[in-house]
Design goal:
Mean pLDDT: 88
Number of helices: 6
Radius of gyration: 18 Å
Distance between the termini: 27 Å
Number of strands: 10
Order of helices and strands: EEEHHHEEEEHEEHEH
Largest sheet: 5 strands, antiparallel
Low-confidence stretches: 243-249
Length: 249
C-alpha cells in the first residue's frame, strides 16, 4: 500500500508552529513533530526516533525501556523511540528550566495495519469511503481548557509535550487501513462540528482547509492528510494530486 502525505498551515491572527515532517515511504513511517520553543527539539525528536526504528540490531537489548505485553511489536517500537526522544529533549533542553517541548504524532504501517502514537496535537480523524469523519485521537489543549465557556478561544497553547518530564503520557492505538482511507491530522484547539458531517470525498486538503478558515478565520491551524492507495492506483492518484496543486497553488 502506497502512502501519500500533504500538509498546509494557516496563519490566522494567532501563532501555531509549523511541524517538522518525516515521511519514509519504504519504511511506511510518518513522524509529525511540532516544536514549541526551538525547532531543534523537533529535529532531535525525529533523529532519535528514526535512529532507533531503523536499527537492525536487537532493539530490546539496546533499549533502556521495557516492552509492554499489551502492545504489538510495532507499537512497542514506536513507544520506545518516542521515550528515547523525550529523554533526549529533557536532558538537553529542560533539565534546569523549560526551554522547549514537542507535540508528536507518529505512525507506521505494517501489513495494512496502521499503528500510531500521539502526544498533544494534531487531532486525528479517519476518513473512509461513504463514511463521515471518525475521531481517533482527540486532545484537549490549554487554549480550550482555559477559555471561559462561550468566549472566543485563546491563542493556541499545548498541554502535552515531549521533553518536560522523564516520563511521558502517550496515546497508542491502531486500525486496519483500507485503500482510499485518509488520516486527517489537524492541529487545532477545537474541532468544528461541521467536520463530523463531512464525507470522505470532502476531505481533500483544499476543501478542508478552506472550510476551517471560514469557521475560525482568526485561529491558526495546521492540516495534514495521509492517504492510503493501492500501488496499482498510485500513479493515477499522484497525477491527480499534481493537477490539484497546480490549480490551487
Amino acid at each position: 500500500m502506497k502512502l501519500r502525505f500533504e500538509e498546509r498551515p494557516y496563519a490566522g491572527k494567532t501563532f501555531r508552529p509549523r511541524p517538522e515532517i518525516y515521511l519514509d515511504e519504504a519504511a511506511q513511517l510518518l513522524i509529525v513533530a511540532t516544536p514549541w520553543g526551538t525547532r531543534a527539539a523537533a529535529k532531535t525528536t525525529i533523529e532519535r526516533m528514526t535512529d532507533f526504528l531503523s536499527t537492525r540490531e536487537d532493539r530490546e537489548a539496546t533499549s533502556p525501556f521495557e516492552r509492554l505485553s499489551c502492545l504489538s511489536t510495532q507499537a512497542n517500537n514506536l513507544r520506545i523511540s518516542a521515550l528515547l526522544a523525550n529523554e533526549a529533549i529533557y536532558r538537553e533542553d529542560n533539565l534546569q528550566e523549560y526551554r522547549s517541548g514537542v507535540e508528536l504524532f507518529a505512525a507506521v504501517v505494517d501489513d495494512n495495519e496502521i499503528v500510531w502514537i500521539q502526544s498533544g496535537n494534531p487531532q486525528i480523524l479517519l476518513g473512509r469511503q461513504n463514511r463521515s469523519l471518525l475521531p481517533l485521537g482527540s486532545q484537549v489543549d490549554l487554549a480550550f481548557d482555559l477559555t471561559p465557556s462561550g468566549e472566543k478561544l485563546f491563542a493556541p497553547l499545548p498541554s502535552q509535550l515531549l521533553g518536560l518530564d522523564t516520563s511521558l503520557n502517550l496515546n497508542i492505538n491502531s486500525f486496519r487501513a483500507q485503500p482510499g482511507d485518509r488520516v486527517v491530522l489537524l492541529s487545532h484547539s477545537h474541532l468544528p462540528e461541521a467536520l463530523f458531517t463531512m464525507k470522505e470525498a470532502q476531505t481533500d486538503l483544499d476543501q478542508l482547509s478552506r472550510a476551517l478558515a471560514r469557521i475560525y478565520p482568526d485561529l491558526a491551524f495546521w492540516l495534514g492528510i495521509l492517504t492510503f492507495a493501492d500501488d496499482a492506483n498510485a500513479e493515477t492518484s499522484d497525477t491527480s494530486m499534481e493537477r490539484n496543486q497546480e490549480q490551487f497553488g
